[in-house]
Design brief:
mainly beta, seven-stranded mixed sheet
Length: 121
């Protein structure tokens, strides 16, 4: 069984910063791509940023230059550093990872339960 657990969300003022973390645990053989998605109230879930096992990064245009994604493979963890936060960044942020479990030959898509980020004065 594989789990993704996010942490680091909370309330921050406009212009502030937060760092989200997402740790994968369980019977893991290899983690392929990892990423962050978000869902604002009344809107569909959207991609924020992804990072492959080779370090290739894709960032949504709405957060480019403000958000940075990184990963620590020794800790099976992906991070999202968010700077210059805006009220429109308010959303539940979900971690996603393509993980190959021990004894398997293909990856399965896993999701965390989400962490709420609220940007408000």
């Amino acid at each position: 069984q594989v789990q993704l657990v996010e942490s680091g969300g909370g309330l921050v003022q406009p212009g502030g910063s937060l760092r989200l973390s997402c740790a994968a645990s369980g019977s893991i053989f290899r983690i392929n791509a990892m990423g962050w998605y978000r869902q604002a109230p009344g809107k569909e879930r959207e991609l924020v940023a992804t990072i492959t096992s080779g370090g290739n990064i894709n960032v949504a245009s709405s957060v480019k230059g403000r958000f940075t994604i990184s990963r620590d493979d020794a800790k099976n963890t992906v991070y999202l550093r968010m700077n210059s936060l805006k009220p429109e960044d308010t959303a539940v942020y979900y971690c996603n990872a393509d993980i190959v479990g021990r004894g398997y030959f293909f990856g399965i898509d896993y999701w965390g339960k989400g962490t709420l980020v609220t940007v408000s004065s």
